[in-house]
Design a protein that fits this description.
Layout: E1 2-7, E2 13-18, E3 23-27, E4 31-32, E5 39-40, H1 42-51, E6 54-60, H2 70-89, E7 94-97, H3 99-106, H4 113-123, H5 137-153, E8 173-176, E9 180-183
Parallel strand pairs: 1-6, 6-7
Antiparallel strand pairs: 1-2, 2-3, 4-5, 7-8, 8-9
Helix pairs in contact: 3-5, 4-5
Amino acid sequence: MAVLAIDPGLNNGIAVLDLERRLLLATEIPVIGEGANKRLNLISFADILTQFRIRHAVVEDVAAMPKQGLTSTFRFGRASGSFEGALAALKIPTSFVRPAIWKRDIGAKAKRDEDIRALAIQTWPDQAHRFARKRDHNRAEAALIGLWFLQHSGWTSGGEDTPPTSSLPAGSRVFVGGEGWRTL
Protein backbone atom coordinates (compact mmCIF):
# COMPACT_ATOMS: atom_id res chain seq x y z
CA MET A 1 0.00 0.00 0.00
CA ALA A 2 1.12 3.52 -0.70
CA VAL A 3 0.20 7.18 -0.29
CA LEU A 4 -0.01 9.59 -3.20
CA ALA A 5 0.95 13.24 -2.72
CA ILE A 6 0.10 15.94 -5.24
CA ASP A 7 1.34 19.45 -5.89
CA PRO A 8 -1.52 20.32 -8.28
CA GLY A 9 -1.71 22.41 -11.43
CA LEU A 10 -0.58 22.08 -15.03
CA ASN A 11 2.98 22.35 -13.73
CA ASN A 12 2.40 19.64 -11.19
CA GLY A 13 4.31 17.15 -9.15
CA ILE A 14 3.23 13.81 -7.79
CA ALA A 15 4.98 11.46 -5.42
CA VAL A 16 4.26 8.00 -4.11
CA LEU A 17 5.58 6.96 -0.71
CA ASP A 18 5.22 3.66 1.06
CA LEU A 19 4.28 3.44 4.71
CA GLU A 20 7.96 3.29 5.67
CA ARG A 21 8.33 6.80 4.13
CA ARG A 22 10.40 5.50 1.24
CA LEU A 23 10.00 7.44 -1.97
CA LEU A 24 8.74 5.09 -4.69
CA LEU A 25 8.02 7.65 -7.40
CA ALA A 26 8.41 11.38 -7.96
CA THR A 27 7.31 12.68 -11.33
CA GLU A 28 4.67 14.82 -12.96
CA ILE A 29 1.54 14.06 -14.93
CA PRO A 30 2.18 15.10 -18.54
CA VAL A 31 0.19 17.80 -20.25
CA ILE A 32 -1.47 17.16 -23.60
CA GLY A 33 -2.68 19.80 -26.04
CA GLU A 34 -1.39 23.26 -26.83
CA GLY A 35 -2.14 26.74 -25.55
CA ALA A 36 -5.65 27.12 -24.17
CA ASN A 37 -6.31 23.44 -24.92
CA LYS A 38 -3.72 22.13 -22.44
CA ARG A 39 -5.06 19.36 -20.24
CA LEU A 40 -3.59 16.78 -17.89
CA ASN A 41 -3.14 13.26 -19.25
CA LEU A 42 -5.31 11.63 -16.61
CA ILE A 43 -4.93 8.19 -18.17
CA SER A 44 -1.32 8.12 -17.00
CA PHE A 45 -2.51 9.36 -13.59
CA ALA A 46 -5.01 6.49 -13.32
CA ASP A 47 -2.28 4.03 -14.30
CA ILE A 48 -0.10 5.25 -11.41
CA LEU A 49 -3.00 4.96 -8.94
CA THR A 50 -3.55 1.36 -10.01
CA GLN A 51 0.11 0.37 -10.24
CA PHE A 52 0.94 1.49 -6.70
CA ARG A 53 -2.37 0.45 -5.09
CA ILE A 54 -2.94 3.96 -3.74
CA ARG A 55 -5.15 3.90 -0.65
CA HIS A 56 -4.99 7.57 0.32
CA ALA A 57 -4.01 10.83 -1.33
CA VAL A 58 -2.90 14.13 0.11
CA VAL A 59 -3.19 17.24 -2.04
CA GLU A 60 -1.79 20.70 -1.45
CA ASP A 61 -4.81 22.93 -0.76
CA VAL A 62 -4.02 25.75 -3.17
CA ALA A 63 -5.70 28.94 -4.29
CA ALA A 64 -5.21 31.51 -7.02
CA MET A 65 -2.16 33.71 -6.58
CA PRO A 66 -2.29 37.50 -6.44
CA LYS A 67 -1.73 39.22 -9.80
CA GLN A 68 -2.36 35.95 -11.65
CA GLY A 69 -4.33 36.52 -14.84
CA LEU A 70 -7.83 35.17 -15.36
CA THR A 71 -6.79 32.72 -18.06
CA SER A 72 -3.93 31.23 -16.06
CA THR A 73 -6.12 31.09 -12.93
CA PHE A 74 -8.76 29.19 -14.90
CA ARG A 75 -6.19 26.71 -16.29
CA PHE A 76 -4.71 26.18 -12.85
CA GLY A 77 -8.15 25.59 -11.33
CA ARG A 78 -9.11 23.17 -14.08
CA ALA A 79 -5.93 21.15 -13.60
CA SER A 80 -6.29 21.11 -9.81
CA GLY A 81 -9.93 20.08 -10.11
CA SER A 82 -8.99 17.32 -12.53
CA PHE A 83 -6.85 15.68 -9.86
CA GLU A 84 -9.60 16.00 -7.26
CA GLY A 85 -12.22 14.67 -9.66
CA ALA A 86 -10.14 11.65 -10.63
CA LEU A 87 -9.47 10.79 -6.98
CA ALA A 88 -13.16 11.15 -6.11
CA ALA A 89 -14.26 9.06 -9.10
CA LEU A 90 -11.89 6.29 -8.01
CA LYS A 91 -13.12 6.64 -4.40
CA ILE A 92 -9.66 7.32 -3.02
CA PRO A 93 -9.87 9.08 0.37
CA THR A 94 -8.14 12.43 0.08
CA SER A 95 -6.73 14.92 2.58
CA PHE A 96 -5.83 18.53 1.83
CA VAL A 97 -3.12 20.59 3.49
CA ARG A 98 -2.36 24.28 3.16
CA PRO A 99 1.18 25.09 1.98
CA ALA A 100 1.97 27.16 5.07
CA ILE A 101 1.16 24.23 7.36
CA TRP A 102 3.18 21.48 5.70
CA LYS A 103 6.11 23.77 4.94
CA ARG A 104 6.31 24.98 8.53
CA ASP A 105 6.02 21.47 9.98
CA ILE A 106 8.53 19.90 7.59
CA GLY A 107 11.10 22.68 8.04
CA ALA A 108 10.70 24.18 4.57
CA LYS A 109 9.81 27.70 5.67
CA ALA A 110 11.59 29.30 2.73
CA LYS A 111 9.42 29.63 -0.35
CA ARG A 112 12.25 29.34 -2.85
CA ASP A 113 12.01 26.40 -5.21
CA GLU A 114 15.70 25.60 -4.81
CA ASP A 115 15.31 25.27 -1.04
CA ILE A 116 12.48 22.78 -1.52
CA ARG A 117 14.51 20.75 -4.01
CA ALA A 118 17.53 20.75 -1.69
CA LEU A 119 15.41 19.52 1.24
CA ALA A 120 14.00 16.67 -0.87
CA ILE A 121 17.51 15.65 -1.98
CA GLN A 122 18.69 15.77 1.63
CA THR A 123 15.70 13.67 2.74
CA TRP A 124 16.08 11.02 0.01
CA PRO A 125 19.74 11.16 -1.14
CA ASP A 126 19.37 7.84 -2.96
CA GLN A 127 16.59 9.41 -5.03
CA ALA A 128 18.40 12.67 -5.84
CA HIS A 129 18.14 11.94 -9.57
CA ARG A 130 14.38 12.53 -9.31
CA PHE A 131 15.06 16.15 -8.28
CA ALA A 132 18.11 16.87 -10.46
CA ARG A 133 16.63 19.67 -12.60
CA LYS A 134 15.48 23.10 -11.42
CA ARG A 135 12.00 22.37 -12.78
CA ASP A 136 11.75 19.30 -10.52
CA HIS A 137 10.76 21.49 -7.57
CA ASN A 138 7.10 20.44 -8.01
CA ARG A 139 8.14 16.80 -7.63
CA ALA A 140 10.08 17.78 -4.52
CA GLU A 141 7.05 19.58 -3.07
CA ALA A 142 4.85 16.55 -3.69
CA ALA A 143 7.36 14.24 -2.01
CA LEU A 144 7.62 16.50 1.03
CA ILE A 145 3.81 16.82 1.23
CA GLY A 146 3.63 13.02 1.30
CA LEU A 147 6.26 12.88 4.02
CA TRP A 148 4.34 15.49 6.03
CA PHE A 149 1.15 13.43 5.72
CA LEU A 150 2.82 10.21 6.89
CA GLN A 151 4.37 12.04 9.84
CA HIS A 152 1.03 13.57 10.90
CA SER A 153 -1.65 11.08 9.92
CA GLY A 154 -0.77 8.32 12.35
CA TRP A 155 -0.79 5.81 9.48
CA THR A 156 1.75 3.05 9.94
CA SER A 157 2.57 -0.20 8.21
CA GLY A 158 0.31 -2.02 10.67
CA GLY A 159 -1.95 -3.13 7.86
CA GLU A 160 -4.84 -0.65 8.09
CA ASP A 161 -6.50 0.10 4.77
CA THR A 162 -7.55 3.59 5.79
CA PRO A 163 -5.21 5.93 7.64
CA PRO A 164 -6.37 7.38 10.91
CA THR A 165 -6.68 11.12 10.67
CA SER A 166 -6.82 11.98 14.35
CA SER A 167 -3.27 13.36 14.29
CA LEU A 168 -3.84 15.78 11.42
CA PRO A 169 -3.97 19.45 12.43
CA ALA A 170 -7.37 20.89 13.36
CA GLY A 171 -9.07 22.41 10.35
CA SER A 172 -7.67 19.84 7.90
CA ARG A 173 -10.20 18.78 5.29
CA VAL A 174 -10.52 15.12 4.44
CA PHE A 175 -12.64 13.58 1.70
CA VAL A 176 -13.76 10.11 2.64
CA GLY A 177 -15.36 8.30 -0.29
CA GLY A 178 -19.05 7.68 0.34
CA GLU A 179 -19.03 9.87 3.46
CA GLY A 180 -18.13 13.11 1.68
CA TRP A 181 -16.09 15.94 3.19
CA ARG A 182 -15.13 16.04 6.82
CA THR A 183 -13.31 18.88 8.59
CA LEU A 184 -11.21 17.80 11.55
